[in-house]
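C-alpha cells as discussed.
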C-alpha cells in the first residue's frame, strides 16, 4: 500500500471552499463525460449518526457514482482487463470539513483494489503535521506532496490559459493573478489535506499501477484546483441550496452526455 498526503493551499476561506468544490465537481464531471464514458450518478442523500472520523462529524451527504473509463486507461491495462471491467465505483461521505471517498472495482478486482481519499480542510498554509491522526507506522510510510496551483507545472495538453491562476483575476473578489509568493502574501488562505491510500493486488503489476494511481491523482488535484479558483466568479456567493439544485440538474445532463456526445476529458497514459 502507498500512503501519500497532498497539501493543496488555496486563496479562499474554508467556508467558501465548501461551495466552490461542489460547484466545480459538477462542472468537471460534465467535462469528463461523453461517448458512453464518464460519470454516472447512482445515489445521493443526507445522513446522520455516522461518525466516520474518530467518532467525529456524524452528519453529512452520501454520494455514489460510477466512473466508466475503458478508453481512458493505458493500453496495457485495457489489454489485460476483460471487457466491461474498467468501471470504478466511488462512494463519498461529505461531512465537511472532513470528507472521505472510497474507490473500488467491484466487478473485476473486488477486494484486490481500493483507493481511499480522506480530506480535512483547515484555515492554515499546510503546517499541520498529522491532521489525519496517522499511527507512527503510517507516518513513517507517508509521503507529503505540496501542490502550488499557480506555479507547479501541468501536463502541456492540460493547460488552458483561462484556467491559469497566474493570469486570472477575479472580478467578484479581486483575487489573483497569483504570483510566485502568493502563498505567503494572500488573504484569505486555507489548505486541503488529502490523504490518499491505494492498493492494487495484481501480481506483476502492483507497483506499476499503484504509482500510476498516485500520478493520476497528483495531476487530477492540480488541474481541478486550478480550475476551481479560476471559476470563482461563477460560484462565489452561491448557497448550499443553489448547489443542490445544480447537482440535481447535473445528474440528468450526465446521462444525456454519455449517450450523445463523444469521448472527452483526461486520458491516462
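Sequence:
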Amino acid at each position: 500500500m502507498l500512503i501519500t498526503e497532498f497539501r493543496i493551499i488555496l486563496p479562499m476561506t474554508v467556508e467558501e471552499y465548501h461551495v466552490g468544490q461542489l460547484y466545480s465537481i459538477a462542472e468537471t464531471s460534465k467535462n469528463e463525460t461523453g461517448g458512453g464514458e464518464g460519470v454516472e450518478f447512482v445515489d445521493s442523500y443526507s445522513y446522520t449518526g455516522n461518525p466516520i472520523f474518530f467518532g467525529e462529524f456524524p452528519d453529512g451527504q452520501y454520494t455514489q457514482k460510477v466512473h466508466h473509463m475503458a478508453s481512458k486507461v493505458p493500453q496495457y491495462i485495457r489489454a489485460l482487463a476483460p471487457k466491461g471491467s474498467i468501471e470504478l465505483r466511488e462512494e463519498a461521505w461529505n461531512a465537511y470539513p472532513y470528507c472521505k471517498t472510497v474507490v473500488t472495482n467491484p466487478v473485476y478486482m473486488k477486494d484486490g483494489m481500493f483507493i481511499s481519499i480522506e480530506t480535512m480542510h483547515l484555515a492554515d498554509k499546510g503546517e499541520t503535521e498529522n491532521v489525519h491522526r496517522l499511527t507512527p507506522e503510517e507516518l513513517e510510510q507517508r509521503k507529503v506532496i505540496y501542490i502550488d496551483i499557480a506555479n507547479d507545472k501541468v501536463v502541456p495538453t492540460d493547460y488552458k490559459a483561462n484556467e491559469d491562476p497566474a493570469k486570472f483575476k477575479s472580478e467578484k473578489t479581486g483575487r489573483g493573478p497569483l504570483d510566485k509568493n502568493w502563498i505567503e502574501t494572500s488573504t484569505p488562505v486555507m489548505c486541503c489535506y488529502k490523504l490518499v491510500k491505494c492498493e492494487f493486488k495484481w501480481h506483476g503489476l502492483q507497483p506499476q499501477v499503484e504509482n500510476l494511481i498516485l500520478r493520476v491523482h497528483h495531476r487530477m488535484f492540480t488541474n481541478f484546483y486550478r480550475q476551481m479558483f479560476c471559476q470563482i466568479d461563477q460560484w462565489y456567493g452561491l448557497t448550499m441550496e443553489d448547489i443542490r439544485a445544480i447537482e440535481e440538474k447535473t445528474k440528468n445532463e450526465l446521462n444525456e452526455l454519455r449517450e450523445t456526445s463523444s469521448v472527452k476529458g483526461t486520458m491516462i497514459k
